[in-house]
Structure prediction request, 471 residues.
Amino acid sequence: MPIRTPADSYRFPISRLDTVPMRAFSGPMTGFVDIAAVAFVGFVTTSSTMLGALLGLWVRIPKSVLATLLAFAAGSLICALAIELALESVHALQHQQFGRTEAWQFVGGGFALGAVIYYCGAMFLEQRGAAVRLPTRFYEFAVNQKRKSSQELIGLLSKSDLMRHLPPERIEALLPYIEVRTLNAGDDPFRAGDKGDALYIVKHGNVAVLPDRGENTSSAEKPIAQLSEGQILEEMALLTGNPRSATIRATITTELLRIGKDDFERLIHEDRDLEAAVRRLSHKRAISNLSSSGVNPATWAAIAASNVHHLTRRESDTLRVKTGHGAGLAIVLGNILDTIPGCLVIGAKFDGMQTLSLSLILGMFIGGIPEAAASAAILRKAGYSAGTVLLLWSTVVVAGIVSAVAGHDLIGNSPSLVSTFLQAVAGGAVLALVAHAMIPEAIHQGGSVIVLPTVAGFLFALYFALSSAPL
Prediction:
């Protein structure tokens, strides 16, 4: 019996399409051959990831080359999804008496669902360390982690009247200059008469404010006040440098945040906005009215936290190593998540070599090389051995084979409407992958010029699609 193509199925009435599996009449031997063939296709499609991992570990590939390959692959996948999957599915549904709008809603709903599933899965895994494998995704993850870790610090700064008179949008530049100083009970961070060389904020613990008794200030001295978490110690020292008017003593183990006057002055000389704000505060009247005006602390803290979006190389490297350790499972699952949807579609559409989606296979194969190369280099920096990196990426090949076979047997042999919808779901996930990782990675590595190889990939895949279309 000749092998039927998707176009042949359009001639069946909808009742038969919904009840007869596409490959229901294949014999056992034919079925085994098909499974072996589709498994081989899945292997070939994903084998490029191992090649990319090897290149990323031992060959220094120019970023422009990686970006070009990734952009070309993204364009090819977009073409395959738009024409070979979405458009063909809509046409198939129209042959089954679906209206144009109904067909669009059916296929579009599948794409939307697939994109949401992929996005939720990717976000879940990236928050658990999978982001370390992709430079742009890791950068966004690292900035979010820095923003979260800075929230407590910024919340404490917001309790300072002086800090709240500074532009919250510029406070990120101040964060690297903040030191944490730990005191044991009885320690004095400063004594009355010392030079006012820093602002202190109580982070955790408790300190006593003791009167000025000179060298005779003792531990038994009755404190003027007790300061606890979030309270400020002589904040105007940053502006005036006047001598301390009291002695501060820790009553229990205490952590103080310290902003040195020298560091503060160096910062404001590098930032014109901060310098202008401090100049206004230095006016005597502004200082005397400091606590009577200013932005609401919660509002100031929210604005300051939202403007934390820079990452130093040292911060990035430190977080990469910290995140990479213990994130092996999340990285493996992230790699598999990127592989499964495309291979499902390839397997589902496979009904003989003449039905291969060449543009989809091409896009996934080419895209696997730069993605794996960049990821392997990142994982190596995160402390993974070369053997471990290759083992992690070998899971992609296994996932590709299994997914292609599953797509062939489960989706391809489903009733046609179910098969069409599930292919659309997988297609939506692939499209989300292109937008979520492939194009951003290409732009990150190659700049805006990658729009050109993206279009080239689309046109190249379009040629394949038109060449294989029936006349």
